[in-house]
């Protein structure tokens, strides 16, 4: 009798209570992103739930220059909180002042992209984070193993990794997971424009309101910089050739050479080849010179513009679109002259500036400004 009673209790514990206990543990540990109710959650890989410990560790790694071979460059060097989490340079500059071929995009709201990089060659923030560490013109490690060996010798990291992943064994996967978790908190949805959309009529100026009308109408921007309340990030997550890349290059010749090099990351950092854009990933001619439609949130803070940093101001960006981009054989059909008046151009710029949000519900803007290099 006692024996069967014990059996029942054991059964209950194993199959009902214990799983619940595990579930509850996990539940308290997880960090729930704070988003306006209508905004869809970004996709978070199942094997990397966000936790407060990972966010803290990721933040530390993001600002740590020891993640470069000569202790001079951190993620924050090129994605600097002082410049809207980009770097204010035309193209990125890594160790020993070495120059890449592309402009550093902001990491604010990058968690909402379907794919990472201007050409979308990384499917997740985790995969993306592994790239710059071993890039010879960025952080310069010869291999991930070399970096991991260096970090294993730093005692403060052993504890932090143990707390985040339950094991002291520091791996490149865990490092990327921690950095990605931190990046997932960098969401900014508190701009004057957001207040306006939420119903506060006077949150933006009459110019900015007219600019938003133009953005959706005569200027046709919204066809690529898509906006809706569930996904308010101003991108279609697609790749378009708007003519930035052409500047006197022989695309056919570059494309022929590129098909012989399997290392896409290498090509993406090479002057010339990098201009092929999405073609490097798909090898389809329609993608020659096509780049990801970038978010335009916080655009006021992240000059210069475009994948090559070739446009210095927002006024120049509007002039570029107004003349119909740069003609080339792969120009996207959505790009054509707009005939905007001087006032309409000003209105569009005013609208773009209404998208600035210094801060968000999931991170402390002022704290990160303090940590900036
Ligand atoms: C030397 C400057 C530099 C460093 C250091 C650097 N990045 Fe970047 N980052 C760039 C550039 C340039 C690109 C765009 C490259 C491309 O598209 O080929 C980029 C792209 C990205 C993107 C994709 C954003 C988008 O819009 O698609 C993310 C996310 C990112 N970096 C995060 C990081 C993290 C995390 C680190 C540290 C591990 C880091 N970066 C280190 C320059 C840098
Ligand atoms: C056909 C699609 C398309 C249309 C239409 C379009 N854009 Fe873009 N936009 C893009 C793409 C793609 C990029 C990146 C191009 C590159 O760097 O080569 C971009 C880049 C930008 C950038 C620079 C982003 C950065 O981080 O450097 C701004 C600002 C911008 N667009 C604003 C606008 C405005 C304003 C309009 C309307 C006048 C507009 N766009 C119309 C696709 C489009």
The first-level CATH class of the largest domain is given as Mainly Alpha
Rounded to the nearest angstrom, the distance between the terminal CA atoms is 71 Å
User: In which range does the helix fraction lie?
Assistant: 25-40%
Based on the coordinates given, report the CATH architecture of the largest domain.
Orthogonal Bundle
- Rounded to the nearest angstrom, the radius of gyration is 23 Å
Give the strand order of the largest sheet, numbering strands 1, 2, ... along the chain: 1-2
Instruction: List the ligand species.
Output: heme C
Count of alpha and pi helical runs: 15
Total domain count: 2
Mean pLDDT figure: 92
Which structural class fits the helix and strand makeup? mainly alpha
| CATH topology group of the largest domain | Cytochrome Bc1 Complex, Chain D, domain 2
User: What is the overall silhouette?
Assistant: globular
In this structure, how is the largest beta sheet organized? 2 strands, antiparallel
Task: Tell me the name of the CATH homologous superfamily of the largest domain.
Answer: Cytochrome c-like domain
Order of helices and strands: HHHHHHHHHEHHHEHHH
Strand content: under 5%
Number of strands: 2
Low-confidence stretches: 19-28
Protein described:
The protein is mainly alpha-helical and 373 residues long. It folds into two domains: 52-187 and 360-371, Cytochrome c-like domain (Cytochrome Bc1 Complex, Chain D, domain 2, Orthogonal Bundle), CATH 1.10.760.10; 192-246 and 289-353, Cytochrome Bc1 Complex, Chain D, domain 2. The protein is built from 15 helices and two strands. The protein has helices at 2-29, 52-62, 75-78, 125-133, 144-152, 155-165, 172-183, 192-197, 206-216, 251-258, 264-268, 279-282, 314-322, 342-353, 365-371; strands at 239-240, 291-292. Helix 2 runs antiparallel to helix 6. It starts with a helix and ends with a helix. Residues 19-28 have low confidence and may be disordered. The structure holds heme C (2 copies). One heme C (HEC) binds at residues 73, 75, 77-79, 92-94, 100, 102, 104-105, 107, 110, 113, 116-119, 125, 128-129, 132-133, 138-139, 179, 268.
């Amino acid at each position: 009798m006692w024996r069967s009673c014990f059996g029942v209790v054991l059964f209950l514990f194993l199959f009902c209570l214990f799983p619940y206990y595990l579930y509850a543990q996990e539940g308290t540990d997880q960090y729930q992103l704070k988003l306006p109710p209508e905004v869809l959650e970004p996709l978070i890989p199942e094997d990397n739930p966000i936790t407060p410990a990972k966010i803290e560790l990721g933040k530390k790694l993001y600002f740590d220059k020891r993640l470069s071979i000569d202790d001079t460059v951190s993620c924050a060097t090129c994605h600097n909180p002082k410049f809207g989490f980009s770097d204010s340079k035309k193209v990125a500059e890594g160790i020993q002042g070495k120059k890449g071929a592309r402009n550093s995009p902001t990491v604010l709201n990058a968690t909402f992209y379907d794919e990472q990089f201007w050409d979308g060659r990384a499917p997740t923030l985790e995969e993306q984070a592994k790239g710059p560490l071993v890039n010879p013109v960025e952080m310069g490690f010869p291999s991930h193993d070399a970096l991991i060996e260096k970090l294993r010798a730093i005692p403060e990291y052993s504890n932090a990794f143990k707390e985040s992943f339950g094991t002291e064994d520091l791996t490149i996967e865990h490092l990327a997971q921690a950095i990605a978790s931190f990046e997932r908190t960098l969401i900014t949805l508190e701009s004057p424009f957001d207040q306006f959309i939420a119903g506060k009529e006077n949150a933006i100026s009459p110019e900015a309101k007219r600019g938003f009308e133009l953005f959706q109408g005569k200027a046709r921007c919204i066809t690529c910089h898509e906006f809706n309340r569930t996904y308010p990030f101003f991108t279609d997550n697609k790749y378009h050739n708007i003519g930035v890349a052409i500047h006197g290059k022989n695309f056919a010749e570059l494309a022929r050479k590129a098909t012989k090099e399997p290392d896409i990351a290498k090509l993406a950092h090479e002057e010339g080849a990098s201009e092929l854009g999405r073609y490097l990933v798909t090898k389809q001619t329609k993608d020659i010179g096509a780049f990801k439609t970038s978010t335009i949130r916080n655009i006021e803070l992240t000059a210069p513009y475009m994948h090559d940093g070739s446009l210095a101001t927002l006024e120049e960006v509007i002039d570029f679109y107004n003349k119909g981009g740069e003609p080339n054989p792969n120009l996207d059909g959505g790009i054509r002259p707009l005939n905007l008046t001087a006032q309409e151009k000003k209105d569009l710029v005013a609208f773009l500036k209404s998208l600035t949000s210094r801060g968000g519900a999931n991170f402390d803007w002022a704290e990160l400004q303090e940590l900036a290099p």
